[in-house]
Design goal:
Blueprint (H helix, E strand, L loop, with lengths): L2 E5 L2 E3 L5 E8 L7 E7 L6 E6 L6 E3 L7 E6 L4 E6 L8 E8 L6 E2 L3 E5 L2
Parallel strand pairs: 2-11
Antiparallel strand pairs: 1-3, 3-8, 4-5, 4-9, 5-6, 7-8, 9-10, 9-11
Length: 117
């Protein structure tokens, strides 16, 4: 069964760090670009970071540049988002997407990240 499972979310204080993970089942992510999105209550979904199939190219939303790092381990079929200097505005449901030219797009369920003192 094809699915993406995000994990690692939680409650963190402002200025803290957290690493969330996305594990793929049923297909090899090595053939897919991977992207993290987030959606806060009442807000539109926004792209956070993306990474190419082999990890050689990354892209970040302006508001997370320098604070977040996306990475991947194709051998483990996982993609990660290391978040540091977290701010209250980073509070959201974080979820991942697998996509590629000519390939189906897969969305995962989210993991909640809450930044609060």
């Amino acid at each position: 069964q094809v699915r993406l499972v995000a994990s690692g979310g939680g409650l963190v204080h402002p200025g803290g760090s957290l690493k969330v993970s996305c594990t793929a089942y049923g297909f090899p992510i090595s053939r897919y670009s991977m992207t993290w999105y987030r959606q806060a209550p009442g807000e539109d979904r926004e792209l956070v970071a993306s990474i190419s199939t082999a990890g050689g190219s990354t892209d970040y939303a302006e508001q997370v540049k320098g604070r977040f790092t996306i990475s991947r381990d194709n051998g483990k079929n996982m993609v990660y988002l290391q978040m540091s200097s977290l701010q209250r505005d980073d509070t959201a449901l974080y979820f991942c997407k697998a996509h590629g030219a000519g390939r189906p797009t897969y969305w995962g369920q989210g993991t909640q990240v809450t930044v609060s003192s």
